[in-house]
UniProtKB/TrEMBL annotation, chain A:
Subcellular location: Golgi apparatus
Protein name: Trafficking protein particle complex subunit 9
Span of domain Trs120/TRAPPC9 N-terminal: 12-196, 203-268
Swiss-Prot/TrEMBL keywords: Golgi apparatus
Pfam families with a match to the protein in the record: Ig_TRAPPC9-Trs120_1st, Ig_TRAPPC9-Trs120_4th, TPR_TRAPPC9-Trs120, TRAPPC9-Trs120
Sequence ranges assigned to domain Trs120/TRAPPC9 fourth Ig-like in this UniProt record: 993-1109
Positions of the Trs120/TRAPPC9 TPR region domain: 342-489
TrEMBL record, chain B:
Name of the molecule in the record: Putative TRAPP subunit
UniProt cross-references to InterPro entries, sorted A to Z: Longin-like_dom_sf, Sedlin
GO biological process: endoplasmic reticulum to Golgi vesicle-mediated transport
Pfam family, one: Sedlin_N
This protein's GO CC annotations: cytoplasm
Length: 1113, 136
């Protein structure tokens, strides 16, 4: 059987191309043959100039205008076929020698000799030519030779033109040879034999029959030559005669041959016409041909020679003719019939050709699976041949089937998929046609044949695909076997070989551990000085619906933009799985980067059988620009492969839907499917400054007592590669008011902070008060984690010179101030105490300013104001800590300090705070609540209780709330002054008051309101027993002036003095007290007096004044 | 019963969702592979043929050597029952396909079964093998 047969084969002139004068380098051989082989069709019109009609041409109807000759060039040896007489198209009718002169001997004579001897086996050749390429100048200069055509080197176009002429000349001489042959055959007759005839016994009847047959056969052969000469009309006439004769003589085989020739003549005649009637004619005739060949099959010589191959060739020719979609049923029936015939073929090569042709025809019909099936049959036939080149052929044929069986190498897959940009309709389409049994067999056959063919790379690739895709179906022993064949293949490959097909392990993206410094990049708002504001959602709400919707509508993973910075290392966590039963050594694995701006660092991993491992891969971006990391590069089993994350994601998706065999990660005991997709856009930006903070004294927690005040030094170092030009420190988080002061003025002075530069600044902290919720299990109060405030440092590098460019982002450094607040003094209770202490009249009436020695007294009394109803705030505190606290009470406004109060461990103590100096100067309506509150908080803020403990710790007791609570009811009384202030003074100051003397006294009445008050004043004097001394029978004090019901009118905020005199009869202690009834009191006064009835008299009483009367001696 | 018979259900994605060697011939790995290849190749012809007829049973559509492929296509033309056999009892094969179709519909009605995924029910397997013994 011959490959590539079609109906047209009958008209093709076979020309053998033989390399002459030693082997030709492949590239030249390819070039020369392509020069020749393109002339498969030579128009008759073009050869007319080379044609000379020596005698009358037997081809009477030759179509010189439209006809053509057809050539079939065969490279290399082609052995003579025993069927040459039957079909002249099988004969080698011309021999072309090609010689590459630089690689052959310089002697053209020897080339000529070699050519002659090479032509010797081709007895049937009617013309021979030898073309010698690339002659040297010396060879060109020689005398022109008849036997060798020298083709001087020229450009391709010139060579093509030259070759066309040569081929046309060859065609013309062949045509003339055909004419000669036909004339000779017509005149003398010829004996034509086929292997079928040689054994036939020649009886007398047979001899007569053979004579008749000879005539028919001659006619058929002349028809064949007419066809070769490109004259279908002549051919048809001869064929008709031949068919008639063959039918008469029962020469079935030649009948079929003539009929076949007539179909070819028909097609050549009607070239370009495609009408259904002709198609039916061709079909009808060819079915007859097939039938005839079948009849010619003689059982008796079936062992020796068989016509089956002619029957099959005829079937293939018809199938090729019909091979179109609309005839698919018919063609596949024909091909199935042909496939059945394979059993009757004796020669293995014939079977091979048959299957190849069937596969090709199914392929061109669009039946790719059928084509793949027969290709596999071909590869099996090749594999039976047990030699390297057959194994290579088997490998190549199998490689053609891989895309149908969906086991193709990724290398070929890419080529296919690149043009189609539309994404797959569904995930299912990714797993289409996964017929695992078949795929495994095909891969194993590829592996076997590539081992036999000595192609370690394809062996490795097939083994890798087999192991990766079908490990669940392979026994542990098989897995180990594959692993060792992978290693064996790798041993025969040079180091660093890359293969398109990944093997193990399976790699998926685990997560993106972002370093905080990567996260804390802030887009600068060029419009604002405080560029970091506005980048975060502002407004009072934590949840803003607008920002949420924008992130949730798009694919969250796609929207995620990751920014990496030049020179700062980044990390990616990947998970590796080895689902096989052998230990897998990954010699190195690193991130695969398709752009040049990233340096990835390799790591080595060993995966025990059936395990998975999470591995941290890192790298450093080196240049600004986008980075795309589709997967990892793995060096495993001696070969470098690229593993794409996307493929594993698809695999896992398929596993989740039950379409793929199994999920490698689940079998390794790794958890659920995480859907981490690699962000498609990672941008690398130019280097930024990077600050590193260090709290002096360690980053550990500062343990502070409630209210303790402490300075902390923060050290900032620029560890980046560009200077810091802007720094702003702000405080954020909880318990903000605990940061009293941030000394960041110093920062401004050191800018720009060069790389490597350091700066430190102080933060003053005051520990906050613990809440109820902070109580821990030991009933000891300790602040909870996360309640500390933190410093937020916004900083930025230099702004680019080009204002068009977007600003490089700024950064944020968060420095947590790890404060641990523990309870110091425990507040037990606060009480408001009232005391009635008479004013010291005697000693201090004359001095308006308190004397220096009065500082030591606990209660200061202004004699003009009096101290009636002094209020004290008593705080009870207990000390449960293990240190001693010293307390100091001070009141702002006057910086008097009172005695220190020491509270020892496990003791309680009380601290008294006088609430005397807070009175407002004017009794006025405090109408608005805020005003009142402001006054109250001003009052409370004035009270400071400071403490010291040990050498270093000091702070302030946080008692505001306690004070406020204690003062709740009485705050108005404390704040508001009485409407009237009563005072007494001695008219002539300096001397002590003596008994039995007239002492002139003055009562001073001050109006504290903004209205004029009319009142009636009364003054009385009491002795130590509290008896009234001025009235009654045993009065001890005589008096002059008016003491009772003195009508007075006091203008607003003014004083009025009422004078009177006393005469003390007995020395001793007395107390003077003034009182008044206010006439026509205004509402304000009524409110102050808390009177309920509108006409109730308002009674005011001053504080008692103490008078010491000494005796007269 | 046929000496060689290989029954496969092919889903709409051209994935075999059920495979069974139901012949009496001793099971050989190599042969079984060959059966699968023949069935796979026959899909091309089934694909064309299924649209030319309204019958579900397509009779024998393909052959290789002595082995014949008979196909039954469910109404949605997506699931194909393919039988590779060497016997010629067309009626038996038809009955076999019809009864397997009923079993397959029961599988489909299982709410836990995802159409297009592998049929793993051992009950189904047992029944199919019983039907093969009965009809083939």
């Amino acid at each position: 059987m011959e490959p590539d047969v079609s109906i047209e084969t009958s008209r093709q002139i076979r020309v053998a191309i033989l390399p002459i004068g030693g082997p030709i380098p492949p590239s030249y051989l390819r070039e020369y043959t392509s020069l020749i082989a393109r002339h498969t069709r030579v128009d008759l019109a073009s050869i007319a100039s080379f044609y000379t009609e020596q005698q009358k041409s037997p081809f009477a109807h030759q179509p010189w205008d439209t006809g053509s000759l057809s050539f079939k060039f065969v490279l290399g040896d082609c052995s003579a076929s025993p069927w040459e007489d039957f079909q002249p198209c099988r004969k080698v009718l011309a021999v072309l020698g090609i010689c590459h002169l630089p690689s052959s001997s310089p002697d053209l004579d020897s080339v000529s000799d070699q050519f002659v001897s090479a032509c010797r086996p081709y007895g049937s050749a009617l013309a021979t030519r030898c073309f010698a390429f690339c002659p040297s100048d010396a060879q060109l200069a020689e005398k022109k030779r008849e036997d060798i055509v020298l083709l001087a080197s020229a450009d391709r176009q010139a060579m093509e033109l030259h070759m066309l002429t040569l081929v046309q000349e060859l065609a013309a001489s062949l045509l003339m040879e055909f004419e000669k042959w036909v004339l000779r055959a017509e005149s003398t007759g010829t004996i034509l034999k086929t292997p079928l005839d040689s054994q036939s016994s020649l009886g007398s009847e047979e001899v007569i029959k053979a004579k008749k047959r000879r005539l028919g056969r001659a006619q058929k052969t002349i028809g064949d030559y007419c066809l070769l000469a490109g004259s279908p009309a002549d051919a048809n006439a001869h064929y008709s005669t031949a068919i008639e004769l063959a039918r008469l003589t029962g020469d079935v085989f030649w009948h079929a041959g003539a009929l076949e020739g007539s179909v070819c003549a028909l097609l050549v005649d009607r070239v370009g016409q495609q009408d259904p009637a002709m198609e039916d004619e061709v079909k009808y005739r060819y079915y007859t041909v097939i039938q005839l060949y079948r009849r010619a099959f003689l059982q008796d010589n079936a062992q020796r020679v068989s016509t089956v191959s002619f029957e099959l060739e005829a079937t293939l020719k018809l199938a090729r003719y019909l091979c179109r979609r609309e005839h698919s049923k018919e063609v596949s029936d024909l091909l199935m019939g042909a496939a059945d015939g394979a059993k009757s073929l004796i020669d293995a090569t014939d079977r091979l050709i048959l299957f190849i042709e069937i596969a090709r025809l199914f392929g061109s019909l669009g039946y790719r699976r059928k084509a793949a099936f027969f290709s596999r049959q071909v590869s099996q036939l090749y594999s039976q041949q047990e030699n390297v080149s057959a194994a290579m052929s088997a490998l190549q044929v199998l490689a053609l089937t891989t895309d149908v069986y969906r086991v193709q190498s990724r290398k070929n897959k890419k080529k296919e998929q690149e043009p189609s940009t539309n994404p797959p309709q569904s995930i299912v389409s990714l797993f289409e046609s996964h017929w695992s049994t078949i795929q495994m067999v095909v891969l194993r056959e590829i592996l076997m044949s590539s081992i036999r063919a000595g192609d370690p790379l394809s062996a490795w690739g097939a083994g890798a695909r087999l192991l990766r895709s079908f490990y669940p179906l392979i026994t542990p022993a098989g897995q180990s076997g594959l692993a060792s064949s992978l290693s064996n293949a790798a041993d025969r490959l040079p180091d660093g070989t890359r293969c398109a097909d990944p093997c193990l392990p399976f790699i998926r993206l685990h997560s993106f551990p972002l370093h905080p410094s990567q996260n804390d990049m802030i887009k600068r708002n060029p419009a604002k000085k405080e560029w970091w504001t506005g980048s975060a959602p502002t407004g009072p709400f934590i949840y803003t619906p607008f920002t949420k919707s924008s992130s949730s509508t798009g694919n969250a993973a796609k929207d995620q933009i990751i920014t990496w910075i030049v020179g700062e290392p980044v990390q990616v966590l990947v998970e590796l799985a080895n689902p096989c039963s052998f230990e897998l050594v990954v010699e190195s694995i690193y991130l695969s980067v398709h752009c040049r701006n990233f340096d990835a660092f390799p790591v080595t991993v060993t995966l025990p059988p059936n395990t998975s491992k999470t591995v941290l891969l890192s790298g450093i971006p080196t240049e600004p620009g986008p980075v795309n990391i589709p997967g990892c590069i793995v060096h495993c089993f001696g070969v470098i492969t690229e593993h794409l994350f996307k493929e594993v994601d698809n695999l896992l998706l398929g596993a989740a839907q039950g379409l793929v065999l199994s999920d490698p990660f689940r079998t390794c005991g790794s958890g659920k499917v995480r859907n981490v997709t690699f962000p498609s856009n990672i941008a690398v930006i130019p280097s930024l400054p990077l600050l590193f903070s260090n709290l002096v004294g360690g980053a550990g927690a500062n343990v502070l007592y409630e209210g303790e005040i402490r300075d902390i030094t923060v050290n900032l170092t620029n560890v980046g590669t560009s200077p810091v030009e802007e720094v702003n420190v702000s405080v954020s988080g909880k318990n903000l008011d605990s940061v009293i002061r941030v000394d960041n003025e110093k920062l401004g002075t050191v800018l720009p902070l060069k790389p490597g530069g350091e700066v430190s600044f102080t933060v003053t902290l005051k520990a906050w008060q613990l809440g109820v919720a902070d109580t821990d299990s030991d009933a000891r109060r300790v602040s909870r984690e996360g309640s500390s405030p933190y410093l937020v440092i916004h900083y930025a590098g230099p702004v680019g010179s080009n204002p068009e460019e977007p600003l490089p982002p700024g950064r944020r450094l968060v420095v947590p101030l790890n404060i641990c607040v523990v309870q110091g003094l425990r507040f037990v209770q606060a009480r408001l105490l009232s005391m009635e202490i008479p004013a010291r009249f005697a000693q201090q009436h004359s001095s308006t300013e308190p004397g220096p020695d009065s500082v030591k007294t606990l209660v200061k009394i202004d004699p003009y104001k009096g101290s009636w109803g002094l209020r004290l705030l008593e705080l009870e505190l207990s000390n449960r800590t293990d240190v001693v606290f010293d307390l100091t009470v001070s009141i702002e406004a006057d910086d008097t300090a009172y005695h220190k109060t020491r509270i020892d461990r496990d003791y309680s103590a009380r601290v008294l705070i006088p609430l005397e100096h807070f009175k407002l100067p004017v009794l006025d309506e405090i109408s608005s609540k805020p005003e009142l509150n402001a006054s109250i908080s001003a009052l409370i803020n004035k009270i400071k209780v400071r403490w010291h403990s040990g050498r270093n710790s000091h702070g302030e007791l946080i008692v505001k709330e306690a004070v406020q609570q204690a003062l709740q009811g009485a705050v108005l009384d404390i704040l508001l002054p009485d409407p009237l202030t009563f005072g007494f003074r001695v008219e002539k100051g300096g001397d002590p008051i003596r008994a039995c003397e007239v002492t002139a006294l003055e009562a001073v009445i001050r109006n504290n309101t903004k209205e004029t008050i009319r009142l009636s004043l009364s003054v009385n004097c009491k002795d130590v027993a509290g008896e009234n001394c001025c009235e009654g029978h045993d009065a001890t004090v005589l008096w002059a002036g008016v003491l009772n019901n003195i009508p007075l009118e006091v203008p607003p905020l003014k004083e009025v003095v009422h004078s009177f005199s006393f005469y003390f009869l007995v020395p001793g202690d007395y107390s003077l007290q003034a009182s008044a009834v206010i006439i026509d009191a205004i509402d304000l006064l009524r409110a102050r007096a808390r009177s309920t009835l509108p006409d109730e008299p308002i009674f005011c009483r001053g504080s008692p004044f103490h008078v010491q009367v000494i005796g007269t001696t | 019963m046929a000496s060689t018979a290989c029954f496969v259900i092919v889903s709409k994605n051209d994935i075999p969702i059920y495979e069974a060697e139901v012949g009496t011939a001793p099971r050989k790995e190599e042969v079984a592979y060959q059966h699968q290849f023949i069935l796979h190749a026959a899909l091309d012809i089934v694909q064309d043929l299924a649209w030319t007829t309204s019958a579900m049973f397509l009779k024998s559509v393909d052959r290789f050597n002595d082995l014949v492929v008979s196909v039954y296509v469910t109404a949605d033309v997506h699931t194909r029952f393919m039988l590779l056999h060497d016997s010629r009892t067309e009626d038996g094969i038809k009955s076999f396909f019809q009864e397997v179709h009923e079993l397959y519909i029961k599988i489909l009605m299982n709410p836990l079964y995802m159409p297009g995924s592998r049929v793993t029910s051992s009950h189904f397997d047992t029944k199919v093998r019983a039907l093969a013994r009965k009809y083939l």
